[in-house]
Design brief:
It contains two helices and no strands. By secondary structure, it is mostly helical.
Length: 54
């Protein structure tokens, strides 16, 4: 019984990891690595998004 739980748990975790990797690759393709890092640090600091400054 516990083997099935472990396989299910790691299977779901693997699917979530693949989804996260696909999202990261998509963002890198759309915005590029520099803009992705700018947006990341902007989100951490709570500032405006780099694309929304007037």
């Amino acid at each position: 019984m516990s083997t099935i739980f472990v396989l299910f748990f790691f299977g779901i975790a693997g699917l979530i990891g693949l989804w996260a990797l696909a999202c990261l690759i998509s963002a890198l393709i759309k915005k590029g690595p520099i803009d992705l890092l700018k947006s990341y640090f902007s989100a951490l600091s709570g500032g405006d998004k780099p694309n929304e400054k007037e």
